[in-house]
Structures are given as structure tokens and as C-alpha cells.
Amino acid sequence: MVEWITSVGLTEYDDAVAWMETRAAAIRAGTADEAIWLVEHPPLYTAGTSAKPVDLVDPDRFPVFESARGGQYTYHGPGQRVAYVLLDVGARGRDVRKFVQAIEDWIIATLTEFNVTGERRDGRVGVWVARNDKPLSPDGTPHEDKIAALGIRLRKWVSFHGLSINLEPDLSHFDGIVPCGISQHGVTSLVDLGLPVTMDDLDLALRRTFDMQFSNGPLARQID
């Protein structure tokens, strides 16, 4: 059983990390169910384990938190849905690559609910959308913007941290970092794409599409 938790208002980042640590330990001990926790944060930057100091363009703009998740710098703030993913990967096949791909597939399926085509790109973490409404890139390919990020940590085969999807954040807040170390592409959101989506709409889509990967799909829990 996966417990779905939605927090109202803005959740402080340190509080979120403390909660995840406690819950992940309880999942490992078998005293708590797996969980998906949906939150919004106040404006902040997080530095993953691969973050490069040069990519923190404006270090005084928002609080900066060192994070144990994989990846580089990312932004969190109001209007962005963060989904913390606390799942027993040990009981779901112990395949880290497949687990990360399943999270990407979950994001892509969620975007499809709003007729947005999200795509992977080799060498770039996250989910991207082609912007045919913008001029072509210098190499003649369509301009692409990032709409979702992900960064996961495993401890004793239990995952924590998770993903973020841009619903309607202030996109100028991303200017204080080089998001995920990629400077030649931009950032977008569902509302920036012209879609009148609410946070409730996005949460419902996340829940509808979750089962495709994690309950009935390739990462379904294996019960001994």
C-alpha cells in the first residue's frame, strides 16, 4: 500500500528532509507504508551531489540547501509541484536504472494527461518539451525547454527525494542557477505553455498515472 500525502501551503525544505529521513527509516523497518508526498516549497535552490559552484549564478537570491539527492542545482518554489517518492525499491526489482526510468515515464504520462508531449534527452536529466512556437536553435533543431526535474537517493533500497513539475512557478527564479548544469536550453511550465491547469488537476493526473508504473506496471511491488 502506498500512502498519498498532500501538504497545504509551503513546506520548509529542512522539515521535508527530516520527514523523509524518518519515513524512509520506518519503511525499511517495516513499520510504515510507502508514501508519495506532494508539497510546495518557498523559493530556494538545492545543490545535488554533482552540483558545480560555478552554476550557482546568484548565491544571495534565495536560500541554498545542500542535498543528498543525485543531480546538480535545481529550483523549488510556489507554483511547482514537488512529489517526494518514498518507495521500497528492494521489493520492486532492485534495478536503479529501471526505477529512474519509471519515474521519468510517470512524469511523461502525467504530462500526456494535458496533451503535452514530454521527452527524454540523452545526457540531460529531466523531462523536456519541444517549443515549436519559438525560433529554431542555432543548429536548426527545435528549441526545447525543461518542464520537470528529478533527483533520487536510495538508502538500503528505500528511495527518497523525488521529482518536480513546473505548473506555474515564477520562471525568472531559475535565472539564479544553471538548472541541472544545462545552460543552452530554457525552462517552461504548464501555464507557460498556455494550459489553464490547477494544482488539483496536476495532483489528480499524478495519482491516475502512478499505477501504470508502480502498482500494475514494471515496478510493481513484489510480495514474497
Instruction: Please indicate the percent range of residues in DSSP E strands (runs of 2 or more).
Output: 25-35%
Low-confidence stretches: none
* Proportion in helices: 10-25%
Radius of gyration: 17 Å
Shape: globular
The largest sheet, given as strand count, sense and whether it forms a barrel, is:
8 strands, mixed
Task: State the secondary-structure class.
Answer: alpha/beta
Q: What is the number of helical segments per DSSP (H or I, 4+ residues)?
A: 3
Average pLDDT rating: 93
Number of DSSP E strands: 11
Termini gap: 15 Å
Order of helices and strands: EHEEEEEHEEEEEH
SSE arrangement:
Layout: E1 2-10, H1 13-29, E2 34-40, E3 44-47, E4 64-66, E5 73-76, E6 80-86, H2 96-112, E7 119-121, E8 124-131, E9 143-155, E10 158-166, E11 186-187, H3 199-214
Parallel strand pairs: 1-2, 3-4, 9-11
Antiparallel strand pairs: 2-6, 3-5, 6-10, 7-8, 8-9, 9-10
Fold and architecture overview:
With 224 residues, the protein is α/β, with parallel strands linked by helices. The protein contains three helices and eleven strands. It has helices spanning 13-29, 96-112, 199-214, and strands at 2-10, 34-40, 44-47, 64-66, 73-76, 80-86, 119-121, 124-131, 143-155, 158-166, 186-187. Strands 1, 2, 6, 7, 8, 9, 10 and 11 form an eight-stranded mixed beta sheet that branches. It has a three-stranded mixed beta sheet with strand order 4-3-5, with no helix packed on it. β7 and β8 form a beta hairpin. α2 packs across α3. The longest helix has 17 residues, at 13-29. The two termini are 15 Å apart. The mean pLDDT is 93.
